Amino acid sequence: MTDPIDYAAAQIAGWIKRANPEETDELERMSPTLSLLFNNLLTTGLILLIAYLADNLLSTAVMLAVFALCRIMLKGFHLKSMTLCVIVTSCFVCLVSIIPVTPLGMTVLTPICILLLFFRSSASIPVKILFGMLMTVNMILLYPPVFLGFAAQTLTLISRRG
């Protein structure tokens, strides 16, 4: 079964190509790019809509920004379907953003997150050091949305295969 996001991206890429065949990229390049764009827009839009409706927009937006930045830089587990990614990521971020975290909880869990970062991420050593330092600084600042963004991302470093 074709993923709905990939299908829509392929259809739109085809329309764009037919509308202006000389000035557009090849379909093989345009379609995956559109899929990623739709994935990101749908995920961000859905998360922010749910956060707004739950009256939790600011902390969710901060948590989402930290999570997204960490996700780009630190890699992690990826789902096979774009649509499944939108659904799971939206639910995951919205649920994690409402977890109450105490200063003691952040202080205890941050070193665990840093260890996961160093031992499970495929990112380069300088990137790991940078994010480890940022997590350490937040351990001093104790800002829950930033901690939750880091913690949520480190959870995606744990794959099902070990």
Looking at the structure, what is the overall shape? elongated
If helices are DSSP runs of H or I spanning 4 or more residues, what is the number of helices?
A: 7
Give the strand tally.
0
Helical amount: over 70%
Described by strand count, sense and barrel closure, the largest sheet is: none
Whole-Å distance between the termini?
28 Å
Rounded to an integer in angstroms, the radius of gyration calculated over CA atoms is 18 Å
- The low-confidence parts are none
What proportion strand? under 5%
What structural class results from the helix and strand content?
mainly alpha
Mean of residue pLDDT values: 90
The helix-strand sequence is: HHHHHHH
Written overview of the protein:
The protein is an all-alpha fold. It contains seven helices and no strands. Helix 2 runs parallel beside helix 4. It is elongated, with a radius of gyration of 18 Å. The relative contact order is 0.13.
List the helices and strands and how they pair.
Blueprint (H helix, E strand, L loop, with lengths): L3 H16 L7 H27 L3 H18 L7 H16 L5 H18 L4 H17 L2 H12 L7
Helix pairs in contact: 1-2, 2-3, 2-4, 3-7, 4-7, 5-6, 5-7
